[in-house]
Amino acid sequence: MKFTYKLEKKEKHTEARLGSFIYNGVKYETPMFMPVGTQATVKTLSPEELKEVHAGIILANTYHLWLRPGEDVIAHAGGLHKFMNWDQPILTDSGGFQVFSLANPKDITEEGVHFKNQLNGDKLLLTPEKSIEIQNKLDSDIAMSFDECIGYPATYEYCEQSTKRTLRWAKRGKEAHNNPNQMLFGIVQGGNYEDLRRMCAEELSKMDFDGYSIGGTSVGEDKPTMYQMVGYATKYLPEDKIRYLMGVGDPIDLIENVIRGIDIFDCVAPTRLARHGHAYTKYGKINLKNAKYKEDFTPISDVCDCYACKHYTRSYIRHLIVAGETFGARLLSIHNIRYLTHLMEDIRESIRNDTLLEFRDEFIEYYYGEKHE
Amino acid sequence: MKFTYKLEKKEKHTEARLGSFIYNGVKYETPMFMPVGTQATVKTLSPEELKEVHAGIILANTYHLWLRPGEDVIAHAGGLHKFMNWDQPILTDSGGFQVFSLANPKDITEEGVHFKNQLNGDKLLLTPEKSIEIQNKLDSDIAMSFDECIGYPATYEYCEQSTKRTLRWAKRGKEAHNNPNQMLFGIVQGGNYEDLRRMCAEELSKMDFDGYSIGGTSVGEDKPTMYQMVGYATKYLPEDKIRYLMGVGDPIDLIENVIRGIDIFDCVAPTRLARHGHAYTKYGKINLKNAKYKEDFTPISDVCDCYACKHYTRSYIRHLIVAGETFGARLLSIHNIRYLTHLMEDIRESIRNDTLLEFRDEFIEYYYGEKHE
Fold it and tell me: Is any Cβ of chain A less than 8 angstroms from the Cβ of B297?
């Protein structure tokens, strides 16, 4: 393993945790938001731009890279870091979520998941061993166990049998794992049933993974239910290991789930919203395609230190988005990721000061409130 | 005017010229290739990236900016420089070429061109005065007279009446021009008829424009015909003014037309080719979508100093292009523009040494020859 998580401080009034790790001589702090580089690139951005917006770990998708360009191409390139020119940590998911959300039809068996390649129609089989083997070859720093991402809502019976299979898959993956430089995380499923989440968290803990992910909380449920599912899982996870909430990135969700003990998050939202012309601000999301920004010669946010806010106006970025120019999506991606990394910096500061609940209340007042720019 | 062209040296064996101008305290040299920023952005690139690949002047399109976001928005922003965050020179075209190539149907009258707005179907009229007025508002450093870009082939009769009208339009535009910071160029048309090109060049010269463009040479003719048309025009233009060949950017065409006395060029080719996965190399254009590059872990070119060649492999860029990731088009745009600015540096060096013809012959041997990487 190239790094180890260190728990530095627990917040007084919540389950929030401040942590850190050293990677290639550089210290990174958690809670942290991880931008998503689905196809070995964070859409529209260069590695240098990602560093400029304080990105730490980035995420790449096993499923996508397996299908294209293929894990062997990346292995022959010397691994994902070298392939994509990224020298900070990389986390790969297991492919489980993509099989769940993209592959149709699919057939889930004890062996793994049978489905069709979305690119060429070939029949494929993703198994726990195969997922680990691909991730080993990609040579990411953190790999995920293969799991079934359960949809919501789901019956207790389905959640129980699926979660037990996810546990058997986690065990098979751990046995297949064969990359000493790579951490391996187990994934807590269990739907919205506390006893199943608990069972899964405890069983995974016994297997002693390098960290723990929480899955199946961002697939259709409302926010209170999501927060509840997260609480059911973190409660039963060891304190000294990093906890990763998968696929969650709405600003309020970052705050609420840090409060429930989460350390790292990933989400495509900042880059996807950017491509549609949306920007995060202190006063909520704005849609730059709105005509009122046509002659707005102010920056997206006057409290943001990003490249887009330093050099460009809402009017110009609006023009780029409306005209379909990718430089617009790039400027908004820079801004949106910086917004989230900035939010995480504020969250960490609030944990340090034991004022996270006040921070949340003030955040809500501005982000959802009547106050205007 | 913010700068004046200075002719520094003529090559001994050809009509090639070395020139320079000072803009905002920085010296720029010609012959020069100008990247195209159609909609106030050079597709996929930031101003910083353009500077890194040694871009000098960039071009923006009057027609596109008139339709979207509208010249008034840009004027209210403080002009095109401020709007798009570009502090080097900007040249705007007249809109004539876009009306010629994009607007259908159109009706050309003495007053101007009537056509439909491609974005919303509105009826529009572009006149010499309107073109100049828009360019005045955009506040580019170099504006173009409104002209009719004659298709090829065209009858002598059509070319004659069209070219005479283009001259009348040039005069009307010059009278309407009202921006002391902006140079105004006349455009030499005349099809492939030496006497018409000559008449046009001489009449424009009498009107004493700040520089001269040559139009209608890149609309379907073969290379020898293009070179001939250019020679017909440069022969009759004053030596002390800059000459701009519009819309030409194929590497061999840059060399051949410098030989015929051209100083500046623009073309969408480097960025358009980039979006289709093509890259210039010393050994000709390569198409990275070709399967043979799948595991090619060398840079696009090992004699190129651009960001793409320093940090990325053909394999990775191929993956990005095939996967539809815009970072691939961005890397190839960086490389292709740098290839052309590098070529212009070599051309200028050859003019300095009076070895441009040898340079051309060697270029052809590698670019079109049997030699391989």
Answer: yes
Q: Which residue has the tokens 């840090």?
A: A258
Q: Is B289 on the interface with A (CB under 8 A)?
A: no
Tell me whether residue A93 is one of the annotated catalytic residues: yes
Q: Is the Cβ pair A69, B322 closer than 8 Å?
A: yes
Measured CA to CA, the distance from residue B110 to residue B94 in angstroms comes to 16
- List of residues 6+ apart from A327 with CB closer than 8 A: A320, B41, B43, B44, B45, B46
Average pLDDT over residues B226-236: 97
> Could you report the predicted ipTM of this complex, rounded to two decimals?
0.97
Q: How far is CA A254 from the centre of its chain?
A: 11
* Catalytic-role residue among A139, A141, A147, A266: A266
What is the C-alpha to C-alpha distance for residues A21 and B201, in angstroms, rounded to an integer? 70
Q: If you count residue pairs, one on A and one on B, with CB atoms under 8 Å apart, how many are there?
A: 103
Question: A-chain residues within 8 Å CB-CB of B327?
Answer: 41, 43-46
Predicted local confidence at residue B372, as pLDDT: 63
Give the span between the Cα atoms of B99 and B91, in whole angstroms.
18
The yes-or-no verdict on residue A359 having pLDDT over 90 is yes
Helix H or strand E encompassing A284: strand A284-287
Query: pLDDT for B300-328, tens place per residue?
Result: 999 999 999 999 999 999 999 999 999 99
Chain B CB contacts of A44 under 8 Å are 326-327, 330
State the best of B63, B326, B332, B333 to mutate against chain A, taking most chain A CBs within 10 Å.
B326
Whether the full predicted model's pTM is greater than 0.95, yes or no, is yes
Across chain B, mean pLDDT equals: 96
User: Is the N-terminal amide bond of B69 cis, ω within 30° of 0?
Assistant: yes
